[in-house]
Amino acid sequence: MGFRNYLLKRLGYALLVLFIILSLNFLLFRIMPGDAVSMIMDPKFDLATKEELRSQFGIDQPIGTQYIKYLKSLLSFDMGRSFNTRRLVWDELKERLPNTLTLFFASFITTAAVGISLGVFAAARRGTFAENFVTGAGLFAYAVPGFFIQLMLLMIFGYYWPILPIRGTMSAPPPPGAMAQFLDRLWHLILPAGSLMVISFGSWALYTRNTMLEALGQDYIMTARAKGLDKKTVLYKHALRSVLPPILTLIFMSLPGAVTGAVITETIFSWFGVGKYLIDAVMQQDYPAAQGAFYLIALSVIVSNLLADLAYGLVDPRIRVGGGAK
Amino acid sequence: MAMLEVKDLTMYYKTLRGYVKAVDSVSFELEKGKALGLAGESGCGKSSMATTVLRLLPSNGNIMGGSVKMDGKELVSLSEEDFRKEIRWKRMSMVFQGAMNALNPVHRIGDQIMEAILAHENVSKQAAKDRMLNLLDMVGINPKRYNEYPHEFSGGMKQRVVIAMALACNPDIIIADEPTTALDVMVQAQVLTAMEGLRKKMGLGMILITHDLAVIAQTCDDVAIMYGGKIVEYGSAKDIYLKPRHPYTMGLVKAFPNIAAEKQKVRSIPGSPPNLLSPPEGCRFNPRCPMATDKCRTEEPPLVKSQKGEQKVACHRESEIEEGVDIWQ
């Protein structure tokens, strides 16, 4: 019993949520003013051409039929063709996905590492200047709008002190050699990933600090200290380990946020990724492209939520039994 | 020489509004294998006393003076590192108040016990495990359950695990801070009996902190009654329970109904414990004492041998109290 049931239940919820989101995604684009054809149509076209186009895009069929077709095609990642480029949306997304994932993982790992260690550092030094500094810096980074910090960083490191590239995922003619290309990509990654870290480490550091302080005040920490364990063991094995479930949940809960947060970041740094694709598609009223990007983002949100639930079940033994804490 | 000698121990908590005088020149002794009860109302400094002896104070708790000697060796001046390695758990272990949370919820109980052994003794993992299984058996927990988590046990069983953990390194003294408060009466009795049996068998000294005088009368050799951060009466459990000499102790005994005695009104002591930020001048009990005089309000009574009993009492008017007279009438 236990973990398997828990897993199946979570999986069921995830599928249900996916279904609801897909339906909303479908409806959203149907209730928008105008239809797909009116976007690409010249007013000079005659009625027959219009009808012809409508049937090409399949929007002359009843909405129920469209819906079933929509669900079927999404299961095979068929998102239709972009109005603009006339290419398959999935092909376009596939090209951009690696860039988005790179940016995402780079920023995510640095944020988690910096945020959690600063939080533990601050909690262990309660009441000192170091703690106040971390808390202050974290609050500042948390409170200032992200795009503002990113623009400032872009201005400082791209313009006043131009040591980093201001746009793109790599140099226009890529440098020769695999190693040089890799370093070139890394060089382009620093500013977008680093700025994402700066704007989001604050909530991590503050959250870790708070949960750690709460844990350090628990009776079992007193027990651990009384047992004569050294400071490190008490801090990491007892305090940090016991707050790992909520922190891990935060990690996975912020995965979707990091995915969508990348939309603005990718736009600011002209990053060739899914986020920028979405913005461009919306701007150009390219419905299939926008719908495809939405679908991908929704899917990543659901998957990361599912991962959060599973991770929580793994690290907190009390969740596994299904009844919660006794 | 007693195994544990506490002399004039003083510990204040530093706060924004001044010092909270939680433990103020407290002295007591504990012989090997004996049990001492520390009793008093909530907030009288009992638990602070325990954390001071084990040096588990929060960062604002300062030992202002006095000494704690174990086998003649001074502990207050010992370095933090030496104290941690040599004293904690190895010589003195603790069973905490609120046993519900004394175990880390994310570690298996067996690991938590083994961890204490491995932290202090240079033994193999297997040896530590064997001892852990043996300890669980001793406190009446099925050793097969060693790899379960705390939430899989009931309150009473958790407290047994905590006791097993306290015995893990064969300490000389166990400090038990309200070990049974969170448990219902039946389980309380079971846990106390188990603890007493093991304590006698292993020849352990114990400091039992509780507000339940009946528990102390049942288990302890000596009793120290604390009020407002000070010991007001100190002597053998029998003397103090049957013939209390301090007005406060008399009130405290009266506040616990005796199930075997005639029906009588349970009486509380009017007023509340003093604010230890600015305790009353003179005797700290004077604002609540029915016998207080001007001397009580200005001069602090020393803890001296009683005129009419065997125990030590800190009261100016102790000699005037006739035996059997109910001053709280």
Can you describe what's shown?
The complex is a heterodimer of chains A (326) and B (329). Chain A has helices at residues 3-31, 36-40, 47-56, 63-75, 89-124, 129-143, 146-160, 178-216, 219-226, 231-268, 274-283, 287-315, 317-320. In chain A, helix 9 crosses helix 10. Chain A is an all-alpha fold and 326 residues long. Chain A has 13 helices and no strands. The two termini of chain A are 18 Å apart. Helices cover 77% and strands 0% of the residues of chain A. Chain A has one domain (3-32, 77-320): MetI-like (MetI-like fold). Chain B is an alpha/beta fold and 329 residues long. Chain B folds into two domains: 4-224, P-loop containing nucleotide triphosphate hydrolases (Rossmann fold), CATH 3.40.50.300; 226-320, no CATH class. Chain B is built from ten helices and twelve strands. In chain B, strand 11 (304-305) and strand 12 (312-313) form a beta hairpin. In chain B, helix 3 (109-120) packs across helix 4, helix 4 crosses helix 5 (155-166) and helix 5 packs parallel to helix 6. The N and C termini of chain B lie far apart (42 Å). In chain B, 47% of the residues are buried. Classes of the chains: A mainly alpha (326), B alpha/beta (329). The A-B interface holds A 126-127, 218-220, 222-230, 233, 237-238, 241-242, 244-245, 315-318, 325-326 and B 54, 56, 59, 84-85, 87-90, 93-94, 96-98, 100-107, 115-116, 119-120, 149, 151-152, 162, 165.
Keywords:
heterodimer; A: 326 residues; mainly alpha; MetI-like fold; 13 helices; B: 329 residues; alpha/beta; Rossmann fold; 2 domains; eight-stranded mixed sheet; 10 helices; 12 strands; 30% helix; 22% strand
List the helices and strands and how they pair.
The complex is a heterodimer of chains A (326) and B (329).
Chain A: H1 3-31, H2 36-40, H3 47-56, H4 63-75, H5 89-124, H6 129-143, H7 146-160, H8 178-216, H9 219-226, H10 231-268, H11 274-283, H12 287-315, H13 317-320
Helix pairs in contact in A: 1-12, 5-6, 5-8, 5-10, 6-8, 7-8, 8-10, 9-10, 10-11, 10-12, 11-12
Chain B: E1 4-15, E2 18-30, E3 35-39, H1 46-53, E4 61-70, E5 73-74, H2 80-87, E6 92-95, H3 109-120, H4 125-138, H5 155-166, E7 173-177, H6 185-202, E8 205-210, H7 213-219, E9 222-227, E10 230-236, H8 237-242, H9 247-254, H10 294-298, E11 304-305, E12 312-313
Parallel strand pairs in B: 3-8, 3-9, 6-7, 7-8
Antiparallel strand pairs in B: 1-2, 1-4, 4-5, 9-10, 10-12, 11-12
Helix pairs in contact in B: 3-4, 3-5, 4-5, 5-6
